[in-house]
Design a protein that fits this description.
It is built from 20 helices and 16 strands. The chain is α/β, with parallel strands linked by helices. Helix 2 (about 35-45) runs parallel beside helix 3 and helix 13 crosses helix 15 (about 365-380). The two termini are about 20 Å apart.
Length: about 475
């Protein structure tokens, strides 16, 4: 348990008194202010870890006061309190990066727990920012692809080898490894760089429409074709066409793709004249094409035409050393775009060391795309200038899944099996919880020397709930 410096800004004398007394009894140092002006003055004179800020005060709007406090010290955790909770107020508080939002009346024991969490968060933010000031992190914004691992260096070498050689390339790798980015890099470094780059996701377009999408059609080719339309191959003429998810290409269309690769000719839907096209083909798949050939789902001759130069993209779990650089890249990319769409602006946040450990320990089934989305989601959820573990719920869930292999869970599974064998229906959950919860409460009470308030705080429940559990389980305190 740590003690923190707390500021209470509220025009209600009774609220200030109750909060101050409860928090001081918990060991915290507390200052109070009767209005926004006094609160801002105190905040500018001293350093506070946690601020309880009333949202409706006679001399100022609490949300405006929140902005002024954060402009002076964005590392402090500000908890907005109000008697009139509504969606507009809640959204306004979270948009301005308040740590939390609570409504009156509130449970004083929950306030103590919230203060502890908010103070811990403020301290973590300051530690991470202090660390960031001494670290030198390269700015990857100007890089086209991110990653300096051995695995990614090999990918870069292969891009350099094939870029100026006008050959067909097949990109192989799991979903989310960045196959389209590699295709764009090959195009960008080729002699076709000033010509179009056209991407087609073969799995996203229904098979009945894919032929006209790729090769176009002439007027009258089908009902509703009142005019002619150029297909993607023709649009990419002179440049590069990227056929993503090529394994999902319908079997009946595969001969047409094969013909383009062999003769550089195609026929639009409904046409009786062939069109010449000068285009480089880059294909990609996350599936095993050799297995697809064995199953009769993919033509062997097309496979060998596509597989002139294969490039395998490694999954993120095989080059985790690139994760810090990738995270830095995404933070700069997304924080910058958020500041451009908001009149508040946004400083690029730092990452708590604990988060980086979780990111590196995670297995990344969705690869770089999953990391990208996770960072973007954390930026949206974060209220301060440092990304904390609580902003990455997926990582916390994964950690819980790992814990399921622990001896405690193995013992629990054997107990569940025993209940099923004995046919004890209707009591499973209650008795299992009692078996685990009772010794847990006894251990915590022992360590707090019978202090129920402190025990409730450690358990993350209020004191009334703890007293109820003590009576229910007949625990001797």
């Amino acid at each position: 348990m740590r003690n923190y410096h707390v500021l209470i800004v509220d025009d209600d004398d009774s609220i200030r008194f109750v909060l101050q007394r409860a928090l001081e009894q918990g060991g915290h140092r507390v200052k109070t202010a009767r209005n926004a002006r006094e609160g801002i003055e105190l905040f500018q004179e001293q350093s506070f870890d946690v601020v309880f800020l009333d949202i409706f005060m006679p001399d100022a709007n609490g949300l405006e006061t929140l902005e002024q406090l954060q402009a002076h010290d964005p590392t402090a955790s500000v908890i907005v309190i109000t008697a009139h909770g509504n969606a507009q107020t809640a959204i306004g508080a979270t948009r301005r990066r308040a740590y939390d939002y609570i409504t009156k009346p509130f449970d004083i024991y929950e306030i103590r727990t919230l203060t502890q969490r908010a103070g811990n968060a403020a301290q973590a933010v300051r530690v991470a920012e202090s660390k960031a000031e001494t670290d030198t992190v390269s700015d990857p914004t100007g890089q086209e692809m991110v990653g300096t691992s051995t695995a990614m260096q090999e990918v870069y070498k292969q891009i350099g080898r094939v870029a100026l050689r006008d050959v067909t390339v097949l990109l192989l790798g799991e979903s989310g490894t960045g196959k389209e980015m590699v295709a764009q890099a090959i195009h960008r470094y080729s002699d076709r760089a000033n010509e179009p780059f056209v991407a087609v996701n073969c799995s996203a377009i229904p098979g009945t429409l894919l032929e006209s999408e790729l090769f176009g059609y002439v007027r009258g080719a089908f009902t509703g074709a009142t005019g002619s339309r150029r297909g993607r191959f023709e649009q990419a003429s002179g440049g590069t066409i990227f056929l993503d998810e090529i394994a999902d290409l319908p079997l009946e269309l595969q001969p047409k793709i094969l013909r383009v690769l062999q003769t550089r000719e195609f026929e639009p839907l409904g046409a009786d004249v062939s069109h010449k096209v000068d285009v480089r083909v880059i294909a990609a798949t996350n599936q095993n094409l050799e297995e697809a050939m064995e199953q009769g789902k993919f033509r062997e001759d097309l496979y060998y035409r596509l597989n002139v130069v294969p490039i395998h993209l490694p999954p993120l779990r095989e080059h985790k050393e690139d994760i810090p650089e990738l995270v830095s890249h995404f933070l700069q990319q997304f924080a910058g775009s958020m500041s451009q769409t908001s009149n508040m602006g946004r400083k690029i946040p730092n990452v708590h060391p604990g988060v980086m450990t979780m990111l590196i320990n995670y297995d990344w089934p969705g690869n770089v795309r999953e990391l990208e989305n996770m960072v973007k989601r954390a930026l949206v959820m974060a209220t301060g200038s440092v990304l904390l573990p609580e902003h990455f719920p997926s990582l916390l869930d994964a950690a819980l899944n790992i814990q399921r292999t622990s001896p405690l869970l193995a013992d629990l599974e054997s107990r569940v099996d025993r209940y099923f064998e004995e046919g004890q229906q209707g009591v499973l959950r209650a008795e299992i919880i009692a078996q685990i919860e009772k010794p847990l409460i006894e251990m915590v009470l022992k360590r707090t020397q019978g202090n129920r308030s402190r025990a409730a705080e450690w358990l993350g429940i209020n004191r009334n709930t703890l007293n109820s559990k003590i009576r229910e389980y007949k625990i001797q305190v």
